[in-house]
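Dig into these lines:

——
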Amino acid sequence: MFSMNKRSQWRGKLQRYAIRNLTLYLIICYGIGYLLQAMAPNVIFYLLLDPFLVLKGQVWRLITWVLIPPENTNLFFLLIMLYLYYSLGNLLERLWGTYQYNVYIFSGILFTLLGAVVLCGYCALMGAQYSGVPGIYLLPGDRYVSFGQFSTYYINMSIFLACAASIPDVQLLLMFLFPIKVKWLGILYGVMLVFQCIQGGVTTWIVSIFSLLNFLLFFLRSKGKMRLSPGQVKMRHEFKQKMRAAQGAAAGVTKHKCAICGRTERDGDDLEFRFCSRCNGNYEYCQYHLFTHTHVQ
């Protein structure tokens, strides 16, 4: 019981720092990355998450890799994709709450950093040599490792997979024409991911597993309890709105109020209030008027 109370206290303290509409900030990072890539294509090499270069003092790479957008050359498709992830991210935030959604996204970022460290150790173990291009290292046998695979692509996919697992019956319009449930798209992506890992080898396995570890942990822990229908999502959202409205209305309500001067407990910590047993009705008075008022008959 003590540990549960402690955890609740810590959660209450951290909730105040949760970032609302976090998905919008991710989209802004993507936009900045695309602008940098358009103006100076080689600048991406200075943003990559490369632990070897971080150890040499280029510590900004621990953050700047978030600016690297998913690879896509079609501007129209890119805008559609960003709008889709923005909508799904906001839906998850309303469904889970701002705090838990923040934990989900930031844990995905931290696991991605951990995956980069593991891949760095693998390169060192295999005797990889720096190729001269940031983020690319040569392995024996004409193989190579690219740290450029660590990008926001997997953050987007973790959002998509979370929606597929939490609200599987929500429908999306495939090619704006064909309605399809998001769970089938999630299954399709899972199959594609397995094939990518088989073809890509150890590097792709490390990148994929660690970048999506937040999704695996969250839903192994939830044991299927996060699954909601579209109707349940709507009901939960409406319930939260009503609760916020009720809390806002209750913020102006006081427990005590003097029937003579109108003072409440907010007018001073030293004020005391009592009900008068001789008045006809529930009349409450402060200590200044409890014995001096005219009794109500």
Remarks:
- The longest helix spans residues 98-126.
- The chain has a mean pLDDT of 78.
- The radius of gyration is 28 Å.
